[in-house]
């Protein structure tokens, strides 16, 4: 299995994860979407030195991993390409902000280091929240939820088709790289001299396939409007879930929970 | 009824893919469209579906195939593409089958009933909630046929329905086609399959009809077939 086929398999794995059943999977897509958006907004709203205050926000993804049965390892495996980028954010903060902010065992920790760690934590937490949303909600339900929230149909269709088109593009890339390597044994990657024609062919081939897919949709009555899977009624448990999540996020944001707990122990 | 009257089409100027083609297909008829590569079979299907527009007149149940009538025409035609991967774009077989009926504004409950009926008729109920990307080639082909039948079309068009299938699934697909009551237009190189599923055969060469008649006449005429880069069906070879 080449890397592209592995990527395709991973893409399929997300659909499989979303098709599982758990208390989190069963929640209404709108509730999960709003909870995730609320979580990300609250996480991002923490000040740059609020590392300790941000820590309790990690409890939500941890709880969701437990309740949904989605393996944590899968999350980090799928985010392995994005995580280094997120970690790189704020890497230069320690160089610019050198004033000591706190002392740990007599050693001074600069404001730059604290803000760097805070930024990294924010990035990782937001990515985990987004991953959990995708892993517990199918793309169709997510799109249906977006339409329920009156997001323009054109944007939602674009999102759905982009998701589907990723698979088409990757499939074509898999076929082409395999054909290339069969005729270039022992060669690592694709030689730079072939990049132009390779990309051109990839574009043409994926456009052909996309056209055929579109024809297939049009022949079955598609006229720019998707009929998303019914997401069911927004029930009491969905409301409770959303209220509980948003309440907890607001509590952690407004009350310094770690400071309060620390105060209890120190006293 | 499907009718072609003096239909021509060129992809490039001066190189016609279909030339002055005329024929009629009666309701319930099963017609095989055969010919060598580049003979114009797929183009003829595209013209009928309104995916390309040529000269001449094509009608489906009296409705002319033209841009203003396309939704009406396409509601009565179902098309099974050669590559099932290009036909199945929803996550599961069930969702893919629901796509057509829902677009035709069939109420969800009614559409679900239609889907269940088709799955049962094709004996593939076990595939209902399977993910498309996990299906084998044969299962995918059967599911692709099911997505089209779920729309309850009056006529079914098929492009190479048995290509790249193992012998078992080839037989399964042939049986499924044989059981369909709709009007059928099947483009294929698999002449044995055409023999098993069609009563009438149209032979194309260079975009023109060179023979049109009962399968017994066309598919047993070795000279005619060889003249147009075809061969007798396997069952008649060595006879």
Largest interface: A-B, 26 and 31 residues
Fraction in helix of chain B: 25-40%
Biggest beta sheet attributes of chain B = 6 strands, mixed
CA radius of gyration of chain A is 23 Å
| Number of alpha- plus pi-helical segments of chain A | 13
Which structural class matches the secondary elements of chain B?
alpha/beta
Largest sheet of chain A: 2 strands, antiparallel
Quote the beta fraction of chain B: 25-35%
Q: What is the molecular shape of chain B?
A: globular
- Tell me the series of helices and strands of chain A, N- to C-terminal: HHHHHHHEEHHHHHH
Distance between the termini of chain B: 37 Å
Mean pLDDT of chain A: 88
N-to-C order of helices and strands of chain B: EEEHEEHEHHHEHEHEEHH
Low-confidence segments of chain A: none
Number of strands of chain A: 2
Structural class based on helices, strands and sheet pairing of chain A: mainly alpha
**Computed Rg of chain B:** 18 Å
What is the approximate shape of chain A?
globular
- Oligomeric organization of the protein chains: heterodimer
Characterization of this structure:
The mean pLDDT of chain A is 88. Chain A has 13 helices and 2 strands. Chain A is mostly helical and 267 residues long. In chain A, strands 1-2 form a two-stranded antiparallel sheet. The radius of gyration of chain A is 23 Å and the shape is globular. By secondary structure, chain B is of the alpha/beta class. In chain B, 35% of the residues lie in helices and 26% in strands. Chain B is built from 9 helices and 10 strands. In chain B, the strands form 2 sheets. Chain B has a 6-stranded mixed beta sheet, sandwiched between helices. In chain B, a hairpin with a 2-residue loop joins β1 and β2. The longest helix of chain B is centred in the middle third of the chain and has 14 residues. The relative contact order of chain B is 0.17. The model of chain B has no long low-confidence stretch (mean pLDDT 92). Chains A and B meet through α1, α10 and α11 of A and α2, β6 and α3 of B.
